[in-house]
Amino acid sequence: MRTHSPVPAPQLRQARLKLLEGSDFTDAAVDERLARSWRRSLAAGLTPTGRLAIPDNLSGKELGRALGRNHELLSHSRPIMEYLFEQVRHSHSMVILADNRGVLMHTLGDADFLGKAERVALMSGACWDERQRGTNAIGTALAEAAGVEIHGDEHFLERNTFLTCAAAPIVSATGELLGILDISGDRRSRHPHTLGLVNTAARMIENRLVVDACQRHLRLHLHPDPAGIGTVAEGIVALSEDGWIVGANRNALQMLGLASADIGATPLFRALDTRLADLLEQARRRSGQGLALRRHDGMSLYARLDGHEPRILSVPATPAPKKDDALSALDTGDGRWRTAADKARRIVGKDIPLLIGGESGVGKEMFARAAHESSPQRDGPFVAINCAALPENLIEAELFGYVSGAFTGARKEGYIGRLREADGGTLFLDEIGDMPLTMQTRLLRVLQERQVTPLGGGTPVKVNFALICATHCDLPAACASGRFRSDLYYRINGLSLNLPALRERSDFAALCDKLLAELFPDLPVDIAPGLRQRLAAYHWPGNLRQLASVLRTACAMLDPGDTRIDWQHLPDDILAALQAGTERPSTTSTVLPAQDLATLSLAAIQQAIVDHQGNLSAAARQLGISRQTLYRKLKTGAGQ
Ligand SMILES: Nc1ncnc2c1ncn2[C@@H]1O[C@H](COP(=O)(O)OP(=O)(O)OP(=O)(O)O)[C@@H](O)[C@H]1O
């Protein structure tokens, strides 16, 4: 556990003996970390010459699942492990990747050493947690969350003392310990630079993971020396659209004086003497050249800005004060969503109609309900009508009601209609752009006169409701082409808000946690970190509705007692999309070009219809969209 020359074996053996006798063994031979590790080994019930209590290799099936869970880590580590192996080839060594439980995932080794290694279970599926194998580089690096070298007799178990090992942790963009990279070899092959080599390789893997996980974010590549940017020593910071640090590698945390717990909880301006808007302005002025930054203590840092330009800069750089209402209960941290909620809060109860735009499934109806529940009329009814789903010949009767015997098939006692049902509460007209023109005229009259006349005559009845409309379509364009009455458009558009598509949101992880907590309030289900990153990069044509449906299905696939969603639990269509690489590609914009998106959506819809032998309802269910939405998307080439 050192970078200088190893301590002679007899001295170490004597210190270990003292430990076993319960006397003080700490002296120059045993550094602090090694002493801690030996004590942990002893506390786990191990003795240096004792036999392993339980055979701990994972079965083939368990290993397969572990490999699935660590898919991202493995795919980024493999090329670097191969490179590393080239450096140590013919030195009786092997390169090992272990997961965050110490289970060996992948090994590359010299043939002559592999046989020896297998005898002590240095092979895929074996677990090298300290509690099972005593002090060893992999287990101890995990326990200490730091790079360590364990040489010869520093190993707690006698059977492992022929080894020399150096291991370094691999940490995710959000500070989670993902696994351990290790070089193990015959103790005679020890090289003083091995730990440095492993540490560097682990940082290279981390940098790849951070860039991959934060593809859709603006990234700051930092170093105190301009020449350090782009090297393994660079710091990488990912920023949300509203200027919060949402990911970072360990180099960056060190450069900014932050801890991993600060990721997601720190705005950029708290770490650096700049705000996101100033940074972007500087980047624009210096077009492509490096940026000069300063920490609050005056230390200079140089940076390069990479990734996507935020689309919205007008969001507040500090989080809005926590509001205890139904809208804040839906707030999972996205800047654009929060801005929309703040605006909605200002108009509720003020007789200003709200018009909510956004793609299908972004949560327009949930937003409308929450706006109602955050309003003074929250104790009144919330009446939701989907204008696209109502058959044209029934819509009039449904909305305005009718008197007894108004038409064949009408209820004997008549019907007051949905508009009157909303009296004293909120009327939510979903897909208002799909309302037939004749109906638009009647609705406009109701909104102007504030009274409803039922079909078949009868006296007009006063109504009083707050109005919220939602649409996926471009209403100004519909007005221009005569499909929507512009006087109605102005009447319903007191305040218009656009909710962001899921792929544009910066709070994917928090959103998943919220959905999972809602689905399983009593079970702490989570998503394997690698998979979560890939899901975050997917383009989600069905938005939150699709995400909720995928998580629901994945949860249903969990074995009893399992609480982690991984690749094998995903529905086939998502799995295929992720494997085919149809996640959001890293373009220079946070949003896919509309044309590409339409093509992808259409392809996904057509595939779903084929998968379900033409059954549109089943295809819509699989995609997590309504049947009407599926029809519409087919009609428009998946454009809206
Ligand atoms: N904030 C949220 N938290 C949790 N789940 C949400 C949220 N918003 C939406 N969802 C999920 O997405 C589904 C669709 O939401 P909603 O019906 O509000 O979307 P929409 O934009 O009105 O869709 P459409 O345009 O197709 O009518 C909900 O049933 C719910 O499962």
From TrEMBL:
For whether the record's keyword set contains DNA-binding, the answer is: yes
- The chain positions of domain Sigma-54 factor interaction read 344-556
User: Pfam families, from UniProt?
Assistant: AAA_lid_14 (PF25601), GAF (PF01590), HTH_8 (PF02954), Sigma54_activat (PF00158)
Report the CDD domains cross-referenced here: AAA, PAS
The protein's matches in InterPro entries, at most eight in alphabetical order, are given as: AAA+_ATPase (IPR003593), AAA_lid_NorR (IPR058031), GAF (IPR003018), GAF-like_dom_sf (IPR029016), Homeodomain-like_sf (IPR009057), HTH_Fis (IPR002197), P-loop_NTPase (IPR027417), PAS (IPR000014)
Q: Sorted alphabetically, which keywords does the UniProt record give?
A: ATP-binding, DNA-binding, Nucleotide-binding, Transcription, Transcription regulation
Asked if the record carries the keyword Nucleotide-binding, the reply is: yes
**Position of the signal peptide:** none
Q: Which domain of life is it from?
A: Bacteria
The name this protein goes by in its record: Sigma-54-dependent Fis family transcriptional regulator
| Taxonomic path | Bacteria, Pseudomonadati, Pseudomonadota, Betaproteobacteria, Rhodocyclales
